[in-house]
Write a structure and sequence with these properties.
This protein is mostly helical. The chain folds into two domains: about 1-50, no CATH class; about 55-375, no CATH class. It has 13 helices and five strands. It has helices at about 1-25, 40-50, 60-75, 105-125, 130-160, 165-175, 185-195, 210, 220-245, 285-310, 315-350, 355-375, 400-405, and strands spanning about 85-90, 90-95, 260-265, 265-270, 275-280. The strands form two sheets. The chain has a three-stranded antiparallel β-sheet, with no helix packed on it. A hairpin with a 5-residue loop joins strand 4 (about 265-270) and strand 5 (about 275-280).
Length: about 425
């Protein structure tokens, strides 16, 4: 897993440089290897052999501990994400997941929150005002958006009835629809919170080059800087995989292409006339096909991270805090109550299957439209249809004003 995450992170940096070059109408890295494919390896070797710089006034032990605490949780969080359909073999079913822990969501929330400790320790140990201010911003931003992130996950747990990511994927497959449709507003809240949690534009307040030089890692260089860099991109990878898994079916493909499902711990295809279960036949092509689907979904959200970074300006710090506490948190709480009430009513009237998902989709669409109008306040959607206000009148200069323009005490004739 470590090698796969590191390789994906390395080539995500290359993808970001190529996408940014396309957006800015330039070539990007294309010299190291064919089409620049060896550029991440060259960057890694450069930082590996680069001289380490340790500030004289820094706390040396904590200065070195900060990058470790930031990078460690980022690399192991991906372990609970299923990345392909289980592979039935003659020795049993092999789950395509590193560790299928029974509390997968809680595991991700817990480890995802530990990374900020490394940022805070690194910023404080640098004995640099810019670095410390960036560390404080990182901790405040994490606290502000962690609650909204958790609330957006609760609606998924209510729909799936399971806290394991494997169970959530199977529930979406059995229901016949992905949760991004009946929980559209929850998906939007999760995406915004994930951007804030990973400190990416427009939420990169802990770094903010125009304000804090480079923020919490101002004093870091060589591999210590690279460890913070790897941690950021590893969190991006995990967040993108979670968006695909929780709301877009994970490795599932649309349609009834595969009728295998779990029954009492076994992967089966149905029952025979006597009621005995029919085991699902081994199918390597299904595992490979679903892995490709999961990779494409994750790659799309990684591209979304990159695209937004190079097209959207940074928020002000007060705007980030107001969005988290005054908009995201109340909206997530209200949406949680609406979804819970809708599910309760549908269960009481015994609505299930496709009708259940369609009804919840309608409710979520209404909530999403209301949320967008509340955020917009009529500036874009309503402003286009509103009559334009007359501008200030332009006054013609008087002869006296013309004399003042020509020169003090002079007249136009002079």
């Amino acid at each position: 897993m470590f090698g796969v995450v590191m390789l994906t992170v390395a080539y995500t940096t290359l993808a970001e440089r190529r996408v940014s070059a396309f957006i800015q109408d330039r070539h990007g890295p294309n010299r190291v290897g064919p089409f620049g494919l060896l550029q991440p390896i060259a960057d890694g070797l450069k930082n590996l052999v680069k001289e380490e710089a340790l500030p004289g006034a820094a706390s040396k032990s904590y200065f070195m501990l900060g990058p470790m605490l930031a990078m460690g949780p980022a690399l192991v969080t991906f372990a609970v994400v299923p990345f392909a359909a289980p592979l039935p073999t003659q020795w049993g079913v092999v789950d395509m997941i590193i560790a299928d822990v029974p509390i997968g969501i809680l595991y991700i929330l817990a480890l995802g929150s530990l990374g900020v400790y490394g940022i805070v320790i690194g910023g404080w140990a640098s004995n640099n005002k810019y670095a410390f201010l960036g560390a404080l911003r990182a901790s405040a931003q994490m606290v502000s958006y962690e609650v909204a992130l958790g609330l957006s996950l609760i609606v998924v747990l209510m729909m799936a009835g399971n806290v394991t990511l494997t169970g959530i994927v199977w529930q979406q497959q059995q229901l016949g629809f992905w949760f991004a449709f009946p929980l559209s507003l929850g998906f939007i809240l999760f995406v915004v919170s994930a951007f804030a949690e990973t400190n990416r534009l427009p939420f990169d307040m802990p770094e903010a080059e125009s304000e804090l030089i480079t923020g919490f890692h101002t004093e870091y260089s060589a591999m210590k800087f690279s460890m913070f860099f790897i941690a950021e991109y590893a969190h991006m990878l995990t967040a993108s995989a979670l968006m695909a898994t929780l709301f877009w079916g994970g490795w599932d493909l649309p349609g009834s292409w595969d009728d295998a499902y779990w029954y009492r711990g076994d992967l089966i295809r149905g029952f025979d006339e006597s009621g005995a279960t029919i085991a699902a036949a081994p199918a390597v092509w299904k595992t490979l096909l679903t892995f490709g689907a999961f990779a494409l979904k994750t790659a799309f959200f990684l591209f979304l991270y990159i695209w937004i970074r190079w097209t959207v300006p940074r928020f002000r710090y007060d705007q980030v805090m107001q969005l988290g506490w005054k908009i995201m948190l109340p909206t997530a709480l209200a949406y949680l109550m609406v979804v819970a009430g809708t599910i309760l009513v549908l269960d009481q009237v015994e609505v299930s299957g496709f009708a259940f998902g369609l009804t919840l989709t309608g409710v979520s669409v209404i909530c999403t439209v209301a949320f967008v109008f509340f955020l917009d306040r009529g500036r874009i959607i309503g402003g286009a249809a509103s009559p334009s206000k007359p501008g200030p009148a332009i006054l013609e200069p008087t002869p006296g004003d013309q004399g003042m323009i020509a020169g003090e005490g002079a007249t136009v004739g002079d």
